[in-house]
Amino acid sequence: MLTATGGPTRSRTRLSRLALATVLPLLLSAACGYGSERPSDAVPAALPGDPLSVDEVRIGYFPNLSHATALVGVEEGLIQRELGGTRLRTSTFTAGPSEIEALNAGSVDIAWIGPSPTVNGYVRTGGNALRIIAGSASGGVKLVVDPEKIKTLDDLEGKRIATPQLGNTQDVAFLNWVSEKGWKVDAQSGKGDVSVVRTGTKVAPDAYRTGAVDGAWMPEPTASYLVAEGASVLLDESDLWPGGSFVTTHVIVSRTFLGEHPDVVEAVLRGSVRTNAWIAADGDRAKASANAALKRLTGRALPPEVLDPAWASIEVTNDPMPATLRTQADHAVRAGLLEEADLTGIYDLGPLHRVLRQDGRPPLPADEQPLPTDTRQTTPRR
């Protein structure tokens, strides 16, 4: 346990922080930074039996706790189990745009991804490239600050606050919160009453440690890593949303793949839904499984002082929470980072509704009605 008092404990604290300073940046660089596609190195083999309408389905996700459904679903073989003879091939990404590019290029069929790149990908292709088919995670975003410099929310004026990337989901959320506080910030440069410093999650810890920033609006596990470095949580973004829930990660699919292989899409969704139930039933075992997946994918596991609080702040869910996505898109428009966009048709929740009904699970809220699925002739990819 980290504490600031007592001789022997203080010594252990220094050692713990030294370990964090040397190990965590490597993990954060691989798990949460911005880079290129990384093929997974240990995917489960297809199960005996005939494949579905395609021999192989390719999924993408981040080696990040907010993608816990994919981490655990792959690690435990829960998604492969639903696919039977269709082989699951996985690729991991460290940036939403590169994952969208892979989906558009046809090298990924189904992906776990955040709201901002999804909206951008949908808008830039005129709604032709992708559909959101399920939720995956809510929460896991915090404003953490140097407690010596910032003690209240009003103290942020004049300070330097890090966000991961210009226009990403957390950057938009912070810009909107700053605007609602009445402060002026130029969205492109980050200059204004509060300085927004786009550092990337892999750089944020060093920036905080050296005093280059006074705090950060960051997703997990970066937020908890900064707390382990001495920062304090000033605000949990969940507190800003009605009911405390907002979409952090959802599941998208190539529109073409959805039209050609609806049976495979439903099998992956069934694996996702059953993985979320498995996580909910045994959180400790699921947390260990997710950390084992991180170690396999990045070469480093998260230490308990980072893993435990980060895991506790993320909720897995099947609900895509479309109202919160539309609100996030509106925030980006108001910040000048997104042109006014019509998101009608971005969801196709019909397959998810069928999976939930067949499994005897509670349906989604009444306002999240299924939309029609593309009716293209199925052409198996062999």
From TrEMBL:
Transmembrane segments: none
Top-level taxon of the source organism: Bacteria
Pfam families the UniProt entry points to: NMT1_2
Cellular localisation: Cell inner membrane; Periplasm
Alphabetic keyword roster: Cell inner membrane, Cell membrane, Membrane, Signal, Transport
Composition skew (Polar residues), residue ranges: 372-382
UniProt cross-references to PANTHER family, sorted A to Z: ALIPHATIC SULFONATES-BINDING PROTEIN-RELATED, TAURINE-BINDING PERIPLASMIC PROTEIN
Family designation: Belongs to the bacterial solute-binding protein SsuA/TauA family.
Region (Disordered) residue spans: 357-382
InterPro entries to which the protein is assigned, alphabetical: ABC_SsuA_sub-bd (IPR010067), NrtA/CpmA_ABC-bd_dom (IPR044527)
Coiled coil location: none
Protein name: Aliphatic sulfonate ABC transporter substrate-binding protein
Organism listed in the record: Streptomyces argenteolus
